[in-house]
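Hey,
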Amino acid sequence: MKLATGWKDYKVIATANGEKLERIGGYTFLRPDPQVIWNTDKKLSDDVDAKYSRTENKSGEWKFKKNFKKSFVIERKNVKFHIEPMSFKHICLFPEQAVNWDIMTNLIKNRKGEVKVLNLFAYTGGASVVCALAGAKVTHVDASKSMNDIAKINASLNNIDNIRFILDDCKKFVEREIRRGNFYDAIIMDPPSFGRGPKGETWKIEEDIFSFVKLTAKLLSDNPLFVLINSYTTGLQPTVMANILNTTIKRNGGKVEAYEVGLPTEEKGVVLPCGCSAIMT
């Protein structure tokens, strides 16, 4: 497992009984976490600045203290990120992805010449911003206008102007880019476990990820730098993702590394697992 370290404005304080207690900026948060299946005698304090609770219909809602500022900025290694509680318990950031940001930053900075990066299912653009700051020319694709809008805020916070934002279905965009004959040196994808398109199309990562990676591989340049896949689906193990990369991308001398991604906590002996990644370099 690779742990996301280097955060000054973010930490996991404690975990128990399906929840995690976090400090984000100057505020405390209590949110559900599906990975926290250990049931202990510990009762996490709900005297927090922001709390997300499940409701009877399996949706949820936030409750805030009066002094809570509903959007603010945190930093890691001089990179600024917009934080805002969203529906379905999100905060506009996945802090554990700092593991991959560091890997991609080093790869891009050590590569001579222009690096074109395609970020698919790009969410609020953490990876897009980090790659752009490292010197890459980034194309950011997401089907959600609200997520793209926040990604643009993140770009603005970091004075970035070398990201091309695309509001589109990722598969349809990839298919058009193939027809247009465009190529990229690096591809990042962070597909959801489940999704539904505007015309009723469904996405199930276990059923669709292999064919999607195979399709996307057609956009790689002759000398690709990396391909990175992230997954938060519990049953999709790192080795599965490594096998997908090894069987869909034919690259002489390329190597694949697959690993769990996690966050350290203030609890002795406890690490919070946060999905997995696989990267071909």
